[in-house]
Amino acid sequence: MMDNKLVYLVEKKYENFKIRDYLKQVHGFSTRLIRGAAFGERLFVNGKTVRLSYRVLEGDKIEVDVNKPESQNVDPEKMDLNIVYEDSDIIVLNKPANMIVHPTKNYQHGTLSNGLLYYFREKGENCIVRLVNRLDMDTSGLVLVAKNQFSHMALARDMKLDTFKKEYIAVVRGNLSSLKGTIDKPIYKEEEEPIRRTIDDRGQESITHFEVVERYKNADKVKLVLETGRTHQIRVHLSSIGNPIIGDSLYGEESELIKRQALHAFKLQFPHPRDGRIVNIEVKLPEDIENLISKVKGE
């Protein structure tokens, strides 16, 4: 298996499938990806390009070249990146607080994507930045990025599986009424409100599982697992039950103990897009949250 090629050997039970149906039904390819590979002459059977109407035979060696010329309207910028995992298909970074993941109208430079695009260019990799998950500017932790269209498609498809987990640690104000449970409340974006989200029956289904891992006099350290991935979901949900994240000025209040919301994406688990093996990645809490915990323990 070459790094830039996905290679499959056709089994007898799939003989006579059209190649587009074989890739879609057996290997989970999207129609867009199949067409792009065929029209870009990156789809091969036994070393030769084929049409999408080709019917596969037992023993056929199918190769899909996932590397293609791509560009992105992001300026590469040299910066220090905390890379915790990387291979030919994906890269996982530990994002610091006070960093946007992707350029916006107000933040064109200094984002994680600016730095990552520079890193790809320096390595001679023809990649654009395909974010699989996003974190708010002042939320730290793990960000998963796909290096090619196939990986992004596979990870987006598999995000609904039980084997795909995003786990966070938050330090909240006060003590939760239950040590463990689920917050199931719809989250809605008001048209006139550009940033803030609210709990509203008109909103999208939003589910957060929580577990108190340490209890203090006036605060809790909470582990959270997202079942859905709405903007500001954890922050909105915790605020809605009366336990806003310490330092969250949007859904709670500013704190003298920490300069941002005490929320960290500490763990990712997902099936690898190429072979389905389960990848587990975990990072420690950053210094500012550890310092916050020390302070609330002493209250």
From TrEMBL:
Q: EC number(s) per UniProt?
A: 5.4.99.-
Entries under Pfam families matching the protein: PseudoU_synth_2 (PF00849)
Family to which this protein belongs: Belongs to the pseudouridine synthase RluA family.
Q: Does the keyword RNA-binding apply?
A: yes
* Any one of the GO BP annotations: enzyme-directed rRNA pseudouridine synthesis
Q: Does the keyword RNA-binding apply?
A: yes
What Gene3D superfamilies does UniProt report for this protein, alphabetically?
Pseudouridine synthase
Positions annotated as active site in the UniProt record: 136
Give a GO molecular function annotation for the protein.
Answer: catalytic activity, acting on RNA
InterPro entries xref list: PsdUridine_synth_cat_dom_sf, PsdUridine_synth_RluA-like_CS, PsdUridine_synth_RluC/D, PsdUridine_synth_RsuA/RluA, RluA_PseudoU_synthase
Swiss-Prot/TrEMBL catalytic activity: a uridine in RNA = a pseudouridine in RNA
Q: What does this protein do?
A: Responsible for synthesis of pseudouridine from uracil.
Occurrences of domain Pseudouridine synthase RsuA/RluA-like (ranges)? 89-240
Please name the PANTHER family in this protein's record.
MITOCHONDRIAL RNA PSEUDOURIDINE SYNTHASE, RIBOSOMAL LARGE SUBUNIT PSEUDOURIDINE SYNTHASE D
Annotated NCBIfam families: rluA_subfam
Where does the source fall among the domains of life?
Answer: Bacteria
What are the record keywords, sorted? Isomerase, RNA-binding
Q: Which organism is it from?
A: Clostridium acetobutylicum (strain ATCC 824 / DSM 792 / JCM 1419 / IAM 19013 / LMG 5710 / NBRC 13948 / NRRL B-527 / VKM B-1787 / 2291 / W)
- The molecule here is called Pseudouridine synthase
